[in-house]
Write a structure and sequence with these properties.
Blueprint lengths: L1 H16 L89 H7 L2 H7 L7 E10 L2 E6 L9 E6 L4 E5 L24 H9 L1 H7 L7 E10 L2 E6 L4 E6 L2 E5 L4
Helix pairs in contact: 4-5
Length: about 260
């Protein structure tokens, strides 16, 4: 027994003196489960070459202090009409303008002062009453009146009066040197073709010719009185003993004695 005990003790002593073996490291590698992705739309294929966009910037003109701004161009009419009178300003209907000119006692003054509507239509007088030579000519559908001047304005004028109440006033451009006295038109029986200034206007202006028709008699000379207003004229013709009122593109007569 003592020998066995001593043998066991030697074994234990040898075990204590023997170095311990190094620990064994075990590496564990985890294998993930496969993940299934949902299908997606294929990406849009970009072009291999992209054109380079060119942007042009237009510089605005610089303003010069004090330089005037150019007005926009206006349309050019095919003809330039000459109005017979100035348009009636808005808001003047029924109102009498405070006119500076003193009116002389005559038929024009009587007619003008007694008719407030006429005052508003004509406006203030622009000239005194002027005595002029005049010529008249009746037509199938109207009348023509020639005046040696437009009151204080040295312009020979012709009035074409139509039976529908409208009229046309135009300068008399007939010249005894450059224009023939006869239009060369052959009038039907009982009618006449106008001559000289009346004839030139009648032949060249289709509206006048169509509106008036043929002349009924020859021209007749007479005396007249004329006064110019802001928006028309008053014309007294001795041969008819009437005052002709021209305003707003229309005409009418008055029996007021001059």
């Amino acid at each position: 027994m003592p020998r066995i005990a001593r043998f066991i003790g030697l074994l234990l002593l040898c075990a204590a003196c023997t170095p311990a073996a190094p620990p064994v490291v075990i590496y564990v590698t985890a294998t993930p489960e496969p993940v299934t992705l949902a299908p997606t739309e294929p990406p849009t294929e970009l072009p291999t070459e992209t054109a380079e966009a060119t942007v042009t910037f237009r510089l605005l003109p610089t303003s010069t202090p004090g330089a005037p701004t150019a007005a926009p161009p206006s349309l050019t009419p095919s003809f330039t009409p000459e109005p017979s009178e100035s348009p009636v300003p808005k808001g003047t209907a029924g109102k009498v303008a405070a006119c500076r000119m003193t009116l002389a006692p005559n038929g024009f003054t009587t007619l003008y002062q007694n008719d407030k509507t006429l005052q508003a239509a004509l406006g203030c007088p622009q000239s005194a009453v002027v005595a002029v030579d005049s010529v008249t000519l009746p037509f199938e559908n109207g009348f023509m009146i020639w005046s040696f001047s437009l009151a204080d304005q040295q312009r020979k004028v012709i009035y074409a009066l139509f039976n529908n109440g409208t009229y046309l006033r135009t300068d008399d451009t007939w010249s005894s040197v450059a224009d023939p006295a006869d239009t060369g038109e052959v009038a039907p029986a009982g009618k006449k073709a106008p001559t000289r200034g009346f004839g030139k206007l009648w032949k060249l202006n289709a509206a006048v010719r169509g509106g008036l028709g043929w002349a009924l008699t020859d021209e007749a000379a007479t005396r007249a009185q004329i006064q110019r207003f802001e928006r028309g004229e008053l014309l007294y013709v001795a041969s008819t003993d009437q005052i002709y009122i021209f305003t707003g593109g229309r005409w009418r007569v008055s029996g007021t004695k001059f």
